[in-house]
């Protein structure tokens, strides 16, 4: 699943081809959740893309007139790309937004967990999300205070989008490894110094992943270069780069989890 660095990378790549363009038509091959295809077809054409951003794992399109916002969640396998007017139709292009220059913004989604929302109040979808980990208000104090209040196991907690937004399975494993924290511990069992290390490692790993264009995990997201820099994720049985111990792979609340039993306590 695309996480913060992958979604942010997609947004940065799409921005030049999308901002300033007006949507002239919408084709939906498969009706995603909300709104209905009819609502999307009647409300979206004629609106200009005034800005393109990201909140958590959502792609956010600011529109003019501004009484609606288009939100796209890529789900497990969603891809967004801009295709020229003469391009072949994509195999899995389920939703196609035709632009005023003839190009098409394609949302393809083989596994169909992705969603498109056209909403009057963006907070109805985004309002419950926790802080952005690279923003100024994700501070050490905030993390220390909020971990101390939670009994949940640390890894699933930091993947919970209402707690911190943007982390998924890959970067949760990587951040906990860099912080030296065992993913199976309870959040309120972390000492303030460990919470501080986790704060630093979350920012560090996300910043590095952004720099390297995110992680390529399968055909869904082809252009990342971060996979070569991952220290535990996908390396079960391989040697820890720090101490040489074999990286363990266990299932933790239905998610594969990778850690070094020596470096992570
Ligand atoms: Zn180790």
Q: How would you describe the overall organization of this protein?
A:
The protein is α+β, with helices and mostly antiparallel strands and 265 residues long. The chain folds into 2 domains: 4-126, N-terminal domain of MutM-like DNA repair proteins; 140-259, Helicase, Ruva Protein, domain 3, CATH 1.10.8. 27% of the residues lie in helices and 23% in strands. The strands form 3 sheets. A 4-stranded antiparallel sheet has the order 1-6-7-5. It has a 4-stranded antiparallel sheet with strand order 2-3-4-8. It has a two-stranded antiparallel ribbon with strand order 9-10. It is elongated, with a radius of gyration of 20 Å. The mean pLDDT is 93.
Superfamily (CATH H level) name of the largest domain: MutM-like, N-terminal
Shape descriptor reads elongated
Strand order of the largest sheet: 1-6-7-5
- Could you give the order of the helices and strands? HEHEEEEEEEHHHHHEE
Question: Number of helical segments?
Answer: 7
| Strand-pairing-aware structural class | alpha+beta
Major beta-sheet overview: 4 strands, antiparallel
The mean pLDDT is 93
Supply Rg.
Answer: 20 Å
CATH topology of the largest domain: N-terminal domain of MutM-like DNA repair proteins
Residues in helices, as a percent range: 25-40%
């Amino acid at each position: 699943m695309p996480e913060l660095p992958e979604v942010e990378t997609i947004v940065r790549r799409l921005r030049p081809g999308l901002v300033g363009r007006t949507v002239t038509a919408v084709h939906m091959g498969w009706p995603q959740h909300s709104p209905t295809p009819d609502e999307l077809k009647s409300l979206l054409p004629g609106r200009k893309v005034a800005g393109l951003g990201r909140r958590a794992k959502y792609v956010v399109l600011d529109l003019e007139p501004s009484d609606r916002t288009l939100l796209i969640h890529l789900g497990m396998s969603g891809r967004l790309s801009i295709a020229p007017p003469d391009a072949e139709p994509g195999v899995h292009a389920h939703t196609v937004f035709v632009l005023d220059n003839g190009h098409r913004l394609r949302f393809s989604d083989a596994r169909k967990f992705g969603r498109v929302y056209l909403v009057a109040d963006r907070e109805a979808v985004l309002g419950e999300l926790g802080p952005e980990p690279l923003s100024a208000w994700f501070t050490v104090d905030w993390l220390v205070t909020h971990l101390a209040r939670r009994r949940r196991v640390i890894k699933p907690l930091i993947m919970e989008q209402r707690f911190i937004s943007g982390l998924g399975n890959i970067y949760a494993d990587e951040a906990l490894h860099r912080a030296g924290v065992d993913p199976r511990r309870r959040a309120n069992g972390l000492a303030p110094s460990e919470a501080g290390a986790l704060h630093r490692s979350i920012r560090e790993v996300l910043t590095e992943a952004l720099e390297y264009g995110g992680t390529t995990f399968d055909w869904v997201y082809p252009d990342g270069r971060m996979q070569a820099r991952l220290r535990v994720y996908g390396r079960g049985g391989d040697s820890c780069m720090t101490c040489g111990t074999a990286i363990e792979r266990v299932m933790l609340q239905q998610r594969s989890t990778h850690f070094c039993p020596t470096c992570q306590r």
